[in-house]
Write the structure tokens for this entry.
Amino acid sequence: MSELNEDDLVQVFKALGHPTRLSIMSWLKDPGSFPPQEQPAEEIGVCLKHIQARAGVSQSTASQFMAILQRAGLVTSRRIGPWTHYQRNDERIRQLGSTVANTI
Amino acid sequence: MSELNEDDLVQVFKALGHPTRLSIMSWLKDPGSFPPQEQPAEEIGVCLKHIQARAGVSQSTASQFMAILQRAGLVTSRRIGPWTHYQRNDERIRQLGSTVANTI
DNA sequence: TGCTTAGATCGGCAATCAACGATATAACGA
DNA sequence: TCGTTATATCGTTGATTGCCGATCTAAGCA
């Protein structure tokens, strides 16, 4: 299995080194726990509005949080109509786990 | 195996979200690669001076880096005479790996 | 073509972090 | 006791991050 290089790792750790962003990653494990939305969250991800509401931050802060997680490769985004849906990147998280276990 | 709670995780990720501190964790996997010292590095850890020299930072910065890693539980320290020796906390790092894989 | 809604980006301010030199403490040897 | 060496802590400055409101862009609908 491929692993993350040092620069990528630092970026990932910075992204996760924030309590709200870390919580968001957990929340996204259960997309069904968010309020209903036009598109099925289980399949295409959770829209920003719902993440913002649960995090209790402003719209701009929520958007920036998700951009940081995305740049770190921890989530993917899919835009459908006016909504941007976010989903965990489980493959990347598995890589992170194995990198931590083997390389750190 | 016991896992880390969210607050501990955030502290660990903050500690590792810095390129030099992340490198130090790798360096400590091979204590024998450091210059010789009075006490055997393989057994009791690497003294701060050697870590400072390899990192290329000031003495105070090196000391603070190691304090941050230690507060995060990633290294342990042992003082013998005038030297403080630092060692990886492999048990903690294993916990981190499994927490990332199972919980994040 | 306007409204309205979702989201991204910009600009700014406060808080935190990074890094250093200076100083303090602790151990040891002359 | 007095240097000397290793390390920790303090105080400061510049850089980065966190977070917001305001603004911009894109989509969808009247």
Summary: The CA atoms of residues 27 and 33 of chain A lie 8 Å apart. The mean pLDDT of chain A is 96. Chain A is about 55% helix and 15% strand. Residues 47-49, 59-60, 62-64, 67, 79, 81-84 of chain A lie near DNA strand C (CB under 10 Å from a C1').
